[in-house]
Amino acid sequence: MLDSLERTHAVESSLKWAANGHLPCVVWFTGLSGAGKTTLANALDQALFKMGAKSTVLDGDILRRDLTADLGFSDVDRIRNAQRVGQVASLMAEAGLISLVALVSPLEAARLAARQAVPAGLFLEVYVSTTLAVCEQRDVKGLYKQARKGGLAGFTGVDAPYEPPFDPDLRLDTGQMSVADCVNALLMLLATRGALPKAAATGLHVPVSAFTA
């Protein structure tokens, strides 16, 4: 029988981080539906795997089917959704992984709740700033069309607001930048935080546009 329900670790997190050869972090991709969050998270995951880094992707759409299936889309539920996902990402970071989260998270309060769930210094906010016009033109899932017809109430960008981050660590517009350039920018960001294996952190070239408002 367990004497305590407190989290204990047989192996300290710092030892796992050292064994990985890089620091962990949580990369939080926020932006409108169709902005390219999941595409960038998966592309970055592939690049990190090739570099020997330990990473995983948390896709908001998939998590909504299970982890947060009981939550709706009110402001309170959106905050709770981000908080839960942040807690999962935090556990993965403590285990030494680079956790790549793709979540619309339209409210500043929701992103703050996620940030507060993650150990200090490990949360990186990436604003995928692709415009509504481009996202709606893509409309891969047909959600914008459905929302415009009134069949999807509270859809972000149509009849629910998106609050852009005030000061993201990185801003990427997939309507203006290629996936390759975006991934390069992301890798440079991770390199500055020690989240890449040292051998892989050299020779990165990043377009200046990625770091400008």
From TrEMBL:
Active-site residue numbers: 105
Entry keyword set: ATP-binding, Kinase, Nucleotide-binding, Phosphoprotein, Transferase
Entry superkingdom: Bacteria
Signal peptide: none
Binding site for ATP: 31-38
EC number: 2.7.1.25
Enzyme class: transferase
Domain spans labelled APS kinase: 24-173
Reaction(s) catalysed by this chain's protein: adenosine 5'-phosphosulfate + ATP = 3'-phosphoadenylyl sulfate + ADP + H(+)
InterPro entries associated with the record: APS (IPR002891), APS_kinase_dom (IPR059117), P-loop_NTPase (IPR027417), Sulf_AdTrans/APS_kinase (IPR050512)
GO MF term list: kinase activity
Pathway: Sulfur metabolism; hydrogen sulfide biosynthesis; sulfite from sulfate: step 2/3
Similarity-based family: Belongs to the APS kinase family.
NCBIfam families: apsK, PRK03846.1
Cited function: Catalyzes the synthesis of activated sulfate.
Protein's name according to its UniProt entry: Adenylyl-sulfate kinase
